[in-house]
Amino acid sequence: MQIIEVRGSTFKIRINGEAAEAIRTNFEYVPKIGDIFPKAKEAMEIASGCTVVPDSMHGDPALMVARLKCG
């Protein structure tokens, strides 16, 4: 597990093979998926060194999961 901060949002990132999970750990007033998902995607890519598969991310502003494409 890694703690990654991206543009004011903090995530705990867990990587399991080609799957990633991002748990937002900071408080944000009325967080919107459209604001949080891009930050979570970036945090997953930083933590894993892989890219998030397009359209694979789902969840809510607190917990997001995605598939990864690695080398």
Characterization of the model:
This protein is of the alpha+beta class and 71 residues long. It has one domain (2-69). The chain has one helix and six strands. Strands 1, 2, 3, 4, 5 and 6 form a six-stranded antiparallel β-sheet that branches. β5 and β6 (63-69) form a beta hairpin. The model has no long low-confidence stretch (mean pLDDT 96).
Main attributes of the structure:
71 residues, alpha+beta, 23% helix
Tally of individual domains? 1
Helical residue percent? 10-25%
Rg is 11 Å
Q: How much of the sequence is in beta strands?
A: 35-45%
Largest sheet: 6 strands, antiparallel
Q: Mean pLDDT, rounded to whole units?
A: 96
Summarize the helix and strand pattern as letters.
Answer: EEEHEEE
Shape: globular
Annotation, overall tally of beta strands: 6
Number of alpha- plus pi-helical segments:
1
Low-pLDDT ranges: none
